[in-house]
Design a protein that fits this description.
180 residues, 8 helices, alpha/beta, 19% strand, phosphopantothenoylcysteine decarboxylase activity
Length: 180
């Protein structure tokens, strides 16, 4: 394990643009950052943004690997922390259910270190019983959460669902890494 390597998962929500700032915070603080993006995340922010900020190739697929060893397995052996920001309702459901159908969820299913999720979604989605159940399942497995916060979300609705500020996520991630 590399105590300075953070796996940053980015999922397909409008808050994905905030993940760029989080990536930059990690990198400027001396961490190596390996970004794993879902296909839907790349609809909001391009992999080039994260490649520039992290100075590393971005993992977007299970199928484009440069080595004989699957990237998610190699990264799981090296990373000190998985932070997913934003963590959409879709990601929470997949992670809680053990679904591994893309690079990020497959890595998450392989990784056995500390996990920090920064949920971001419409307040009605956050309040939905299925989402609440998934959060309980994940918390019961020792997954940590940053937010979500209360306030106005991108669609204009107000309530709990807005992704925590990148600085807040960074602070919590740093605290988790000190415990390791």
């Amino acid at each position: 394990m590399n105590p300075k390597l953070i796996a940053l998962g980015v999922t397909g929500g409008i808050a994905a643009y905030k993940a760029a700032e989080l990536c930059s915070l990690f990198f400027r603080s001396g961490f190596e950052v390996q970004v794993l993006m879902t296909e839907n995340a790349a609809r909001f922010v391009t992999p080039l943004t994260f490649r520039t900020l992290s100075r590393r190739p971005v993992v977007t697929s299970l199928w484009d690997v440069a080595d004989w060893r699957p990237e998610h397995v190699a990264l799981a052996d090296e990373a000190a922390l998985l932070a997913v920001a934003p963590a959409t309702a879709n990601f929470l459901a997949k992670f809680a259910g053990g679904i591994a159908d893309d690079a990020l969820t497959t890595f998450a299913a392989t990784f056995d270190g500390p996990v920090l999720l920064a949920p971001a979604m419409n307040p009605k989605m956050w309040a939905h019983p299925a989402c609440r159940s998934n959060v309980e399942i994940l918390a019961g497995r020792g997954v940590h959460f940053a937010g979500p916060e209360n306030g106005r979300v991108a669609c204009g609705e107000a309530g709990t669902g807005r992704m925590a500020a990148p600085e807040t996520i960074f602070r919590i991630a740093s605290e988790l890494l000190k415990q390791e």
